[in-house]
Amino acid sequence: MTKIQTLPAAVEGQSSKTSKSPRRRESPGNLAFSRNARIKGLIKHAILILVGGIMIYPLLWMVVSSLRPNDLIFREPGLWLNNLEMSNYTDGWSALTHPFGHYMINSAIVVLGSILGNLISCSMAAYAFARLQFSGKKLFFGIMLLTIMLPFHVVIVPQYILFSQIGWVNTFWPLIVPKLLATDAFFVFLMVQFIRGIPKELDEAARIDGAGHPRIFLRVILPLMVPALATTTIFTFIWTWNDFFGALIYLTDPDMFTVPVALRAFVDSQSATSWGSLFAMSIVSLFPVFLVFLFGQRFLIKGIATTGIK
Amino acid sequence: MSAIGELSTMTRRKGPMTKEEKKANGRDNKAAYVFLLPWLIGLVVITVGPMLMSLYLSFTDYNLLQPPQWVGIDNFVRMFGDARLHNSLRVTFTYVLVGVPLQLAVALVIALVLDKGLRGLPFYRSIFYLPSLLGGSVAVAILWKQIFGTTGLVNQVLAMIGIQGPGWISDPNTALGSIILLHVWTFGSPMIIFLAGLRQIPNMYYEAAEVDGATTLQKFWRITLPMLSPIIFFNLVLQIIGSFQSFTQAFIVSGGNGGPSDSTMFFTLYLYQKGFGQFDMGYASAMAWFLLVIIGAFTAINFIASKYWVFYDD
Fold it and tell me: What mean pLDDT do residues A12-28 have?
């Protein structure tokens, strides 16, 4: 009984989060099956809790282990803590050439530059693809979609040669400049999809009022596409924060290390005895992503769903 | 209209359809190219230029110090006889052909369980989604290195029930499996796409099937699966393309060498070693183009095969 009564609320919650979905499948009409449905529901919850528990357990265990003395990490599979051992964090923080905060700041610079680059360049390209008529549009749009699928490795060697010739190795430019040039075509596609959903009448109205394209873009379209911009911001944050390959190739000077390459240097430099501080810094490195996930989840899920479905 | 629909029409027509294009011809050319300028520069300087350049380099011997030496198809001939490269292909194919279907199957099953307006859905969804955001990080790869180590978490748990597990990542037979598991662990993002897809299936189909007395299994095979097939296809294409490029996890778990005994030597890892370890840029470029051809071939096969199993409603 309770199950069925709570259904509409659950449905409301999920549909507002995903898309303008049709009604859910269960209708309050099958009251006769309510007992059956309740057992089914219980089984489902059991499966989900089991699978979810197994998935999350390693992460929880890493958090707990980072607060334990080193030797326990290889003996204690449980999650209970006798006392908090903060030394892993203080040791790990200062284990490398620079304090770990240095690498966090480097990462933050690259992330901010990338976000700014993606927001500006991708929204401009998306406006052109979604709203403007121009020769070669079909061809360019097709090429844009193809570049989403292009493996990074095909361009990395000449890109490296190019950037090293202009002296950009061990600077953040090779990681930021491509974003300023809208090479993350995934976001162009996401924004095109979003702009197509904005009523054209709004553009028309602005045009009748004498607005040109720059004005329509800045005053009409951009304010309306804030959700797509938020999705782009969040994905760019997470992907750039986690980016290892690019940083591995372009940043070889410890001064310039971002968090992933710093962690890698940490793994390489440490003997098996300092897993505690390695875990501690891993937790520190995941924390910003976790925060973004916590507060931006709505946009993330919407973003994935739009690109897949719309 | 699904993205897949769009993508597939794309390949047939070499361009998306916009109704407006018929009435206006080049009216906004100037404005359009201004808006497209950053993207166009990026396309030329960051994407197409380097692509052509790497195609050229693949026919040369180049170590960054001396100018490239034209060697014809030598690099490709070398690839033909390079046993480590063949091994890296085997490793990568295993990873893709086992990891992707497994991950999508888990994603689909969990999405199906979650779909039916379950209490606490947002909570479960978050729990399942979180790993797919963290899975690409070095930190999680480090965690994996520990938990699948000889005295890692997995073996500690196994020891509690009296089993002595192998050193998963130090044993060539199980190392790749551990990394495949990491891939399966990130099933959250295809799951979200499945969930959104499931919502799009009109309720009336199920109602009609119920009137006809269809069982749950029948409803799944006859309604859910066909209606969801474009989404399955979409996930399949994306995940295959992405998995061929996997790098970080194998790099960190193996300490950068693809070991033990090359059992986690992904194609991309070998490419990295050739290009940026030994600065054999010509060979690395040839490998990169080979990877592009492989991914292109897989995607093409996917699209061709989709005609036989993907069902489009419209």
Answer: 42
